[in-house]
Amino acid sequence: MDTLTFLLSGTLLAATPLLIAALGELVTEKSGVLNLSIEGMMALGAVTGFIVATASGSYWLALLAGGVAAAALAAVFGFVVLVTLGNQVASGIAVGILGIGLSGLIGRPYESSTIAPMHELPIPFLSNVPVIGPGLFDHVALVYCAPLLAVATWWLLRSTKVGLVIRAVGEAPEAAHAIGYNVVLVRFCAVLYGGFCAGIAGAFISIASATLWSDGIIAGRGWIVVALVVFGTWRSGRVAIGAYLFGMTTLAGLLVQSTGIAIPSQVLTSVPYIVTIIAIAMLSMDPQRIRLNAPVSLGQIYHEAK
Amino acid sequence: MSVFPFSIETRTRRTRFSAIIPPLIAVCTTIVASIIILTSLDVSPSRALYYLYIAPMATRFNFAEVILKMAPLLLIAQGLAIGFRARIWNIGAEGQLIMGAIGGSLLPIWFNDSGNILMLPAMVVVGAIFGMAWAAIAAVLRVRMNANEILVTLMLNSIALQVLYYLISGPLRDPFGFNFPQSALFPDVAMLPILLANTRANISIFFAVLVTLLAWFFMQRSFPGYRLQVGGSAPDAARYAGFGEKQAIWVSLLVGGTCAGIAGVFEVAGPLGQLQRVVTPGYGFAAIIVAFLGGLNALGILAAAFFMALIYVGGDIAQTSAKVPYSVNTILQGVLLVSYIASRVFSDYRVRLRKPAYNRQERV
Q1: Strand, coil or helix: what is B280?
Q2: Chain B neighbors of A97, CB-CB under 8 A
Q3: Is residue A57 within 8 angstroms of chain B, CB to CB?
Q4: Residues of B in contact with A101 (CB under 8 A)
Q5: Is residue A298 part of a domain?
Q6: Of B321, B332, B322, B327, which is closest to residue A106 (Cα–Cα)?
Q7: Does residue B328 form part of some domain?
Q8: Which of A123, A291, B174, B314 is the most buried (most CB within 10 A)?
Q9: Is residue B69 in a domain?
């Protein structure tokens, strides 16, 4: 496989779970809820997906199960922040820790075991094009779905009534309540959806890209997802660009190594985190940009006055 | 809200009694959860209770272990709580601890045959500076570039771990250590004095308690502490009064980083005795839980740190005696914080059962 094919294919594999989870988190944040427990939800999705795929052999069922398991954890998060009015930052960390612990316990019998990768779905004709074909068009179906999901999310938030309600609840919960929308219910659904996406993303990692389960396999990707939403200034298109750029930086290290330049592996492992910090700092420099795009009530507790 | 048979009203007055309810519920929930989880792992409920909560206090050695683990939790949580009160979310104590451990290890590694009794104080100073500097990165980026400190401190955790891995596999590796990724053993002058003979408990607990008293004084009795709290609970009022937000960010992150850095020094100069791949069993994250469980109050954190240390040691005992996986510990930490936050609704709000008549009226 030549370098360009490897680069394209590796970028897509690395970026797909990030993008799927980030688009879910985007919808959650648009409704005004900051969910910091993505890491735990992805871990739970990964282990559930892995177990279901191993036991049943059905990878689609595995993805669904991963999504459902993470959504169940998201329900706990939703209950804590929406019903008992908990601080969203602390609740996110708490539920995240819970998810990581649960996935470690559930996955213990499967620790370090591997699984046959999910079947690829080569796109006819396109996958036969040299270099680009095997790089871009010979992947599991989810890889093609992710950019479509980005478009769908953009359309949902921009042009549908559901999207308008989600945005209204995130921008002005009191006003949304006053015109008859159930703010708590809308936010709860958005939290469940975000959890479901994170679970599918986690399952993708364990059954399609890494094809193994080991405790800690998510390795901070959940936090990168949260960073991607800020990086994309709460817009689907920019989130998608961010996810693919980020996927590329995870491969940059391997490319540099292949040229024979001696760089410690620890430096290469750190590159994505350093890039994230720099990207967040550069993008936040203009406070106007954050203020214009961030949902107004993001992270705030909503309490219906009685 | 109407699906629930209760209503939640804002509490206008805080009672003395209400503050103690959430941590109490959280501890009870955690104990119940631990029994359920361990029963599912074929450990009888009575054995589960014994391993986790009684055995850690049953022998002198185990109790010393609780004290040993309580010190870093207490120290870090006090530093974090000051920032959390100002609503500055430093999630990077784990990385700051690692940097502190690295900084504290430099002197004993470079002057490995030294007998100078000033070694230990100097290590603490260097470690504190390292932890502080690591947190300062997040502070600079937040103050100058408005970068979200949650994300930056989190990323810095991952980077700190890689810095540690790099150093112990190269520059700081023990040249006579058969290529193991660890440093040389520290000289005696670099080690914390042991508190109880034949145990691992050292004097770091005194330091942590001293910091607790300082933190209490700072937050409850000093003007800068008051300004920080106003900035957290009423940002508009703080701005109007001229209490600078930038100052709050700097103080919060630097204090948190310093405490975590010193805790890192205490790990390498205490139970570890060298710099190695694992310098913290998640103290940086557990301390976040401790800070919240203690109600962000210096004295509450003292009790919370003790309970968290108890679970840590109890988890270790259950692991060696009944092969209970370490993940159970992580789950219990999550349950502890989730149930604490959820039950805060009883102290911050008034939860009232809806009367049936009221319900019917609403449905019309």
Answers
A1: coil
A2: 285, 289, 330, 333-334, 337
A3: no
A4: 327-334
A5: no
A6: B327
A7: no
A8: B314
A9: yes
Residue at A62 is within a domain = yes
Which residues on chain B are in Cβ contact (under 8 Å) with A227?
151, 155
Are A85 and B348 inside 8 Å of each other by CB?
Answer: yes
Amino acid found at B200 = R
| Domain total in chain A | 1
In 3D space, the residue among A131, A128, A39 whose CA is nearest the CA of residue A92 turns out to be A39
Residues in chain A within 8 Å Cβ distance of B21: none
Helices (H), B146-282: 149-169, 204-221, 223-233, 235-241, 245-267
Q: Is the CB of A306 inside 8 Å of chain B's CB atoms? A: yes
Q: Which residues of A touch B141 (CB under 8 A)?
A: 277, 280-281
Give the pair of three-digit tokens for residue B227.
């300004």
More confident residue, A30 or A252: A30
CB pairs under 8 A between A and B: 146
**CA distance to partner chain A, nearest, from residue B39 (Å):** 14
CA distance B61 to B59: 5
From chain A, the residues in CB contact with B334 under 8 A are 40, 94-102
Q: Decide if A83 is inside a domain.
A: yes
pLDDT above 70 (res A106): yes
Output the domain CATH number for residue B134: 1.10.3470.10
Helix (H) or strand (E) holding A59: helix A59-78
Distances, alpha carbon A153 to alpha carbons A26, A185, B100, B247, in Å: 9, 20, 44, 40
pLDDT of residue B1: 47
pLDDT band at B2 (very low <50, low <70, confident <90, very high): low
Q: What is the pLDDT of residue B349?
A: 83
Residue B235 has pLDDT above 90, yes or no: no
Could you read off the pLDDT of A173-204 as tens digits, one per residue? 999 999 999 999 999 999 999 999 999 999 99
Q: What is the ipTM of this complex?
A: 0.91
A65, pLDDT greater than 60: yes
Q: What's at B82, amino acid-wise?
A: I
In this predicted model, what pLDDT tens digit does every residue of B336-361 receive, in sequence order? 999 999 999 888 888 877 655 444 44
Report yes or no on A299 lying in a domain: no
Total number of domains constituting chain B: 1
Provide the residue range defining the domain that includes B296: 63-314
Mean pLDDT, residues B246-267 = 96
Over range A256-282, report the average pLDDT. Answer: 85
Q: Does A274 touch chain B (CB under 8 A)?
A: yes
State the CATH number of the domain containing residue A271: 1.10.3470
- pLDDT number for residue B363: 45
Smallest Cβ distance to B89: which of A89, A94, A108?
A89
Q: What is the residue range of A182's domain?
A: 3-293
How far away is chain B from the Cα of A111, in angstroms, using its nearest Cα?
Answer: 12
Query: pLDDT band at B62, cuts 50/70/90?
Result: very high
**Is B24 a domain residue?**
no
* Nearest chain B Cα distance for residue A84, angstroms: 5
Place of tokens 């103080």: B251
Task: Please answer yes or no on whether B289 and A89 come within 8 Å at the CB atom.
Answer: no
